[in-house]
Amino acid sequence: MDKVKPIRILRRGQPVRLDNVPPDRTLLELLREDLRCTAVKEGCGEGDCGACTVVLGEVVDGELRHKAINSCIRLAHSVDGMAVYTAEDIVSPGGELHPVQEALVRCHGSQCGFCTPGFVMSLFGMYVNSRGGQGITRAQAQADLSGNLCRCTGYRPILEAAQQMGALPLPTGCAVNAKATVAALLDLRPRSASRTTYQRPTRLKALLQARANDPRAQVVAGTTDVGLWVTKQHKRFASVLDVTATRELLRVENYPHHVAIGAAVTLIDAFDALVQIRPHLRRFAERFAGLPVRNSGTLGGNVANGSPIGDSMPLLIALGASVVLMRWKKGRTKGEVAHRELRLEDLYTGYRTNVMHSDELLCWIKVPKPIPGEMSRVYKVSKRFDDDISAICLAINLTVTNGVVRGASIGVGGVAAVPVRAAGTETALVGQPWNETTVMNAIARLRNEFQPISDMRASAAYRQTVLGNLLRRFWLESEGLTDINLENPLEVSA
Questions:
Q1: How do the domains of the chain map onto residue ranges?
Q2: Quick one: fold of 200-370?
Q3: pLDDT of 239-279, one tens digit each?
């Protein structure tokens, strides 16, 4: 019988051990029900409102790294060996408020108060990652707080608190002792255990072997999708295989013609790597999801999940990305790692189904670097500007030389059961002069290439119309127009 591995975390500098925790129990349930930490609130149960936000501390390359995450969709076992901070944990031993809490009080940033602990922890994440809240601008505060919703519409004073918290004194006992925390976490480091109900291997070979031994285990990364299966669909998993501790898959590797992003690389780090080679993707990266979701979720998990409205796939399809699938191949005397590579759009066979075998894992995403003459953009249309799922996502990558389209790659989300490539529209563009006549012909082709459905996010007619409009927007931007979009940060007025 598989063992139930204990969970060991650090709270207020002290180790805490919890036994017999089911593999599908969420971190929110662990905190509220097992540890009686009721400051952590459950709002939406799907990582959307931010009321459940906590901060995790872990050792990365020998240094302490903090990040705010949604505890409602994060599995409890995934934080084994980490420090967990809640709004109850950052007050001084004498009861004095932390500067982030004091700033919210002084700026009147709490109204009904339900969302306040989540805002406190997102602010705390900003505070510890900016050397005591120094230099935080309003734009940065808006970006980092995009994963927290205030239904009382109290954003202005909360943003003011973000800007003022760095000027407040830090009470004795509130400072994070990085050196002591790193030492405590290293001592707390999870010990390997075979055949447990929640496996989180640290090496690729062990991960692939675990997959081969238990192909029915639920594979997870940041659980920003799987977490909803637990909270909304009430699914239960007898065993879980977590890829996020596998060292080889935590890397972003830089090659002359492409970057390779490991399946365990978080969305925040994966998009940072993409922005390094294509700076114009920065605003799209911030709109992909709220910061707590990007801190937990992984690009590999988003791609493997294959949602037709997942935003990363249209972009990656347009950029010509491929995926590397790997498995443990058992031989007569010993096993070996086998792999195959395919274009990302060839991964999917239907709604959330793919070509992966039961013992295979998606391990790498390879993204080509820009080439001379390349023009690329990605557009997301959603009901809310921040922290929302797309109704339509269109990514375009053209290579134009001497005024003629030499290459075209277009990825689309929200129009079919899978993320798709607009092959017909690409054909209408390649070999044609890059002018308005060509664009208008391509718009007509794009609007007729798919038969989207009508749902809660948009009607079919709206999606078809917007697809064409976004291609026209791309044309206008290529002609130098810059005042036709909302890509500049939306400032909250006083």
A1: 1-189, 200-370, 371-494
A2: 3.30.465
A3: 999 999 999 999 999 999 999 999 999 999 999 999 999 99
